[in-house]
Amino acid sequence: xxxxxxxxxxxxxxxxxxxxxxxxxxxxxxxxxxxxxxxxxxxxxxxxxxxxxxxxxxxxxxxxxxxxxxxxxxxxxxxxxxxxxxxxxxxxxxxxxxxxxxxxxxxxxxxxxxxxxxxxxxxxxxxxxxxxxxxxxxxxxxxxxxxxxxxxxxxxxxxxxxxxxxxxxxxxxxxxxxxxxxxxxxxxxxxxxxxxxxxxxxxxxxxxxxxxxxxxxxxxxxxxxxxxxxxxxxxxxxxxxxxxxxxxxxxxxxxxxxxxxxxxxxxxxxxxxxxxxxxxxxxxxxxxxxxxxxxxxxxxxxxxxxxxxxxxxxxxxxxxxxxxxxxxxxxxxxxxxxxxxxxxxxxxxxxxxxxxxxxxxxxxxxxxxxxxxxxxxxxxxxxxxxxxxxxxxxxxxxxxxxxxxxxxxxxxxxxxxxxxxxxxxxxxxxxxxxxxxxxxxxxxxxxxxxxxxxxxxxxxxxxxxxxxxxxxxxxxxxxxxxxxxxxxxxxxxxxxxxxxxxxxxxxxxxxxxxxxxxxxxxxxxxxxxxxxxxxxxxxxxxxxxxxxxxxxxxxxxxxxxxxxxxxxxxxxxxxxxxxxxxxxxxxxxxxxxxxxxxxxxxxxxxxxxxxxxxxxxxxxxxxxxxxxxxxxxxxxxxxxxxxxxxxxxxxxxxxxxxxxxxxxxxxxxxxxxxxxxxxxxxxxxxxxxxxxxxxxxxxxxxxxxxxxxxxxxxxx
Length: 716
Hints:
Elements: H1 2-19, H2 21-41, H3 55-67, E1 74-80, H4 86-98, E2 103-106, E3 110-111, E4 117-124, H5 132-144, E5 149-154, H6 155-189, H7 192-216, H8 226-254, H9 259-286, H10 294-315, H11 317-325, H12 335-345, H13 348-359, H14 361-376, E6 384-385, H15 397-408, E7 415-421, H16 425-439, E8 443-451, E9 457-463, H17 471-489, E10 495-499, H18 501-535, H19 538-564, H20 569-572, E11 580-581, H21 583-612, H22 617-646, H23 652-684
Parallel strand pairs: 6-11
Antiparallel strand pairs: 1-4, 1-5, 2-4, 3-4, 7-9, 7-10, 8-9
């Protein structure tokens, strides 16, 4: 019954839109305009630092906030050069900084151990978020002392520089991806109007989702990068859905059917695939909710909304546009591209690949699986860690300065903070500091012990000699939590927790590691159920799930080879940190499974349709994949091109995401869907449709199968 409902929804939506085209088109534009205006009228509620708290470090952060022990934001100025003139410049800098807007305190300039560099630490008032006045002072003092190197960094400087870099990267990616997508659509259709429709509908879906997300953010705080996620997913699925529909409608018109007949057949076939695919993408993204972390919750919600909007637009306004445009959708033609499109549409390349696969399915399946496994095996050794200074672009001045500060002044590098609440907390933490230095790997930080005004809570800051990403850092924090702190704090009955950036990264990594298998199982199970319900076939659902697992394995293997082991460092312009940034694999998993289902549903639906018309499974597989090859090629080309652009950006997270998704989708659309899928289906034969077989001509509509050519009532 659910499968029949999935079939009827796009068919009825298309019929209503065909009968009331202007009403459907106007309604869509009004809805998009109204939703878009919400982005201006309703301010987005972005996630706050407290929303990111997790585990023991989150508890420590909350304790510090409650006790008023959260330190102020600080900016650091590093001075190096002639040791005789550095102190004078540092004192001048400190005097001028103390008069700058938003500054509450300036610490006395301090030498490093070998007196080759001096550091000035500037404390900022609560709520101060503009480092411009401080940067002006730094620039002025540096101009007066050209023989010295004077550089500024700090939390706010880093945030501002990184945000600017991310904004520049995304603007560059979006500016390149839009014309690239248009060119690919021109290659797919050979006509300007047909090429423009998918892009315009996708842009409309993205714009509408931005407004809706602004409202939803007051229920679920928005991650700052959610807008990029909406653009990324919205353009991918929006273009693909329109592409599926348009290709099928043009194909039916080429067979001599009227526009109305062609639109309804497209609704029954491609419309069904769009609905199933949309549900699969949304279900896959819903797996991120299980992690229960604000970043993933926000990204999942934004992706689900944009997919839902794209599905609605594809099964409503698109049929209306096609009915009103009629054959004008193929105008104006670009002569060379039109001829090229006709040649690509013939499926010549896919026919040459499929012939040996269908002839020797066992050998083809074994060879393709071996190749995929070879790419996936490195994933078994994947190491994940949160982003650190090492993963940020060194060309950002504030990043390189912070690296130098951490190297010259260890107390400003990797630190942990122990919070303790209860009588005698300060004394107990003081004893812990001595023990951590004597028995552990920690060193005490000057003025590292602080106590709240009411004396109930104290904090202790300890330094580590290694960067966050070093395994020894995690071992030291674990030792502090499991041995050193309990021995000194539990004995006197104190409530305590270990926090700080390094501890927070460790907690997040452990949280992700615990939930990763659950999310993978959830996503694959939903894929299994979705395909089983939509196509009424257990073997097909199992094959689809297995292929998705292969795609994910390939993506993880590529991530490990390129970014953990440093393959292609020179070509891609990065330095390997020796690990994969922790949130990337989970994000790649859900996006890849969701997007690859787009053309998988389209291809399997076409094969089932042909089986329902009486073709044997072997012939239906060959013809179905051949006939859908141009659509799959175009859809995959859009995704691969867009994600490949992200691989050229400066931020390492963007590179990881772009490389993993572009390579995995390329392999998924070629080796997996052109070799593994047909080989598996041919080997299974008629058994692939168990427990129900597609009905032969004379029956009813089953899944995506159109058994009767539709009889349509003429529309005025």
